[in-house]
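Hi R.,

As promised on Friday, here is the backbone we talked about, encoded as structure tokens. Could you run it through your design pipeline when you get a chance and send me back a sequence?
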């Protein structure tokens, strides 16, 4: 699905030097490399503040804590996503309110968000699923009308750009009150372990979330609020700082591979290629097909026999997960998400795919999906 080894070999000298510098300095935690990377990521994304964290899940949790949400507050999130989005909501004693997604873009449904708002709603957490921004302009408009916070789960979408109707262009994670991303190795900007970051343009919120990520501490050993311990270590920061200048090219490589797939599958009636909205670019964290009128699981097995990995993201929507059983929801309540769970298939997608590999993958899929 990914080829992190080849990607590393292209920039091995820079990465190795970055790691060695950290070891030589012995500033493993909160070293200067972390501050440098944060500053570089601020410049790259246009976010006023970047706070690095231990992982993307922590970033989401710290964002919710920073906004001061209280037990019982309702947080709207799509049912078709990675579990972390709802997990942190539940962990903090907030109430996850799950809503359906759009059947074509697979991102949160604007109409569903509108219908889910109650007097207890405090925040919306749109997920920029698979690397394409959710439709942020109406989401931000709804949030404004109802006085809600917006926390973007941009874990899969670093570098995706959203164009507002007035022509303003902003990056994924920098549009809401807070944005969160992940540097998990297979993410579009991945480190060699765990890592994450929070984006915000709000000075006060920045200071508060920075303190929360550091045991609720502003002055050393004086704890003003209950916090957590979540930080990006210096070695990971050095690796990310070496990779960041290549992120734009990495995105282009993913988009080229996606264009190859799009073109190859265009005329096959069983294969629906990813739907892009005009307002957002797509950075293809995943290239996810919908397979219609054909046995998806058999296709996946057929590909495995040819040595081609393919993954199902995600086989079970949130409202059908055992840990998230809730009398408010039952099977059939979110038809688009449920349909996606049984039809999606993600293909190999990374920065190192060459034409030979793409040809082998697409030829085999077309053979298996013969009309
Ligand atoms: C990866 C991911 C996360 C969590 O990131 P970690 O760094 O693994 O904690 C959260 N939300 C989404 C949508 C993700 O893809």
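Update: got your reply. Pasting your designed sequence below so it's all in one thread:
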């Amino acid at each position: 699905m990914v080829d992190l080894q080849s990607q590393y070999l292209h920039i091995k000298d820079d990465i190795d030097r970055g790691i060695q510098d950290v070891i030589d300095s012995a500033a493993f935690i909160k070293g200067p490399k972390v501050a440098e990377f944060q500053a570089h990521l601020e410049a790259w994304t246009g976010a006023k503040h970047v706070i690095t964290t231990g992982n993307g899940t922590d970033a989401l949790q710290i964002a919710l804590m920073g906004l001061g949400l209280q037990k019982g507050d309702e947080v709207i999130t799509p049912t078709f996503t990675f579990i972390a989005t709802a997990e942190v909501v539940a962990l903090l004693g907030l109430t996850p309110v799950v809503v359906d997604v759009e059947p074509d873009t697979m991102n949160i449904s604007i109409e569903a968000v509108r219908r889910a708002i109650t007097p207890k709603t405090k925040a919306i957490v749109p997920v920029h699923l698979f690397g394409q921004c959710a439709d942020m302009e109406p989401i931000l408009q709804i949030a404004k009308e109802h006085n809600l916070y917006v926390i973007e789960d941009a874990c899969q979408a670093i570098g995706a750009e959203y164009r507002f109707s007035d022509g303003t262009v902003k990056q994924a994670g920098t549009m809401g009150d807070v944005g969160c991303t992940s540097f998990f190795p297979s993410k579009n900007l991945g480190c060699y372990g765990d890592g994450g970051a929070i984006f915000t343009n709000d000075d006060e919120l920045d200071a508060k979330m920075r303190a929360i990520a550091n045991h609720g501490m502003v002055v050393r050993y004086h704890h003003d609020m209950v916090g957590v311990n979540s930080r990006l270590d210096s070695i990971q920061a050095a690796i990310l700082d070496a990779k960041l200048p290549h992120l734009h090219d990495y995105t282009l490589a993913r988009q080229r591979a996606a264009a190859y797939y799009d073109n190859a599958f265009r005329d096959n009636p069983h294969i629906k290629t990813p739907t892009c909205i005009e307002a957002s670019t797509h950075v293809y964290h995943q290239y996810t097909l919908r397979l219609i009128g054909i046995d998806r699981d058999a296709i996946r097995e057929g590909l495995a026999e040819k040595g081609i990995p393919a993954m199902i993201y995600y086989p079970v929507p949130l409202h059908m997960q055992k840990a998230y059983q809730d009398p408010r929801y039952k099977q059939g309540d979110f038809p688009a998400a449920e349909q996606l769970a049984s039809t999606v298939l993600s293909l190999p997608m990374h920065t190192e795919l060459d034409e030979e590999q793409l040809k082998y993958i697409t030829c085999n899929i077309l053979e298996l999906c013969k009309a």
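One thing I noticed while checking it: The longest helix spans residues 247-265.

Thanks again,
M.
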